[in-house]
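Extended Data, panel c. Modelled sequence:
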Amino acid sequence: MGLVRWPFWAVVCVFLSVPFCLVASEQEQLEDIVQQPVHCERIDNSQWSRPGSANDWEPFHGRIGDRVLRCDCHDSVRTRRSEEYTVDQQQPNLRNAVFVLSSFPATTVATDILIVNCGQLHVPAGTFRSIRAAFLPRTIRFVNIAQLTLDSFAFETDSSTRTQQVVTNPRDPHPILGPITLSFDRCQLDELPANVFHGAAIRSVLFSTSSVGAIRSLAISTRFQQFLLSDTVVGSFSRHAFKRAQMEQLHLHNVTMTGAWASQAWQGLIVGNSIQIRDSRFLQTIHPAAITESSTYWKNALLVVYVLSYSKV
């Protein structure tokens, strides 16, 4: 049998085609990841009170206003599919869509903002920065987010808004507009990064039936009325996670902590009313100085710790 002699140009083409195929395969994988803005629309009382949407508002803290802005990733998927099907006459590939919450314009007027039903959602820095001081929403609520990524300064508002917060009655449970009650219901976060709430006119931060991988250093470093973790899994508190934080109430109800509670995690924390840790489980070591740091200041605060279990795995 004789050897088959290939022309030199054919051999070169064969070798060049291999990396080209690899690049094309990687390109196809990258094309599967789609950055998609979340579609937001105004809904009235009759829409948010209908049976199909009742679960979105049922455990809501505070009353619901008549100017609700709903940002629904499911609606965004339907809108994108409709647009692409019209152009390409084929079903688009949205398996790995990463939704991005676009910056709200200065013309935004909403008493309540609801972000719901997202597989992956990214909230960049300054998303709420342009909202005018006189038109802050009372509530911003994230519901049913499978993978939520928050950037540092994600909830920052302008300086005039933060100045306005000082003259607002902090004990008023139903302010007209702002400061904001920020809540996360059925959400999963890898982390709360440093300064995620910095510069925000926030009244309360509430986590319910959610999961937070790690609360990083300086993540909770601002002033607000209440910080509540309820029915939530937390990976770990990093060192100085609550440094410079000031609040009236700090409550951990039915919390499971899977990682270590580091020393000085609550160093520099100021609590004016009460600290409650109840019905909670800690699966790793709690450092003896995790809470009782000398620099932690509890002004007339009541510390309640009961029905707490600890197990080393």
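The chain has five helices and 16 strands. This feature is highlighted in the accompanying rendering.
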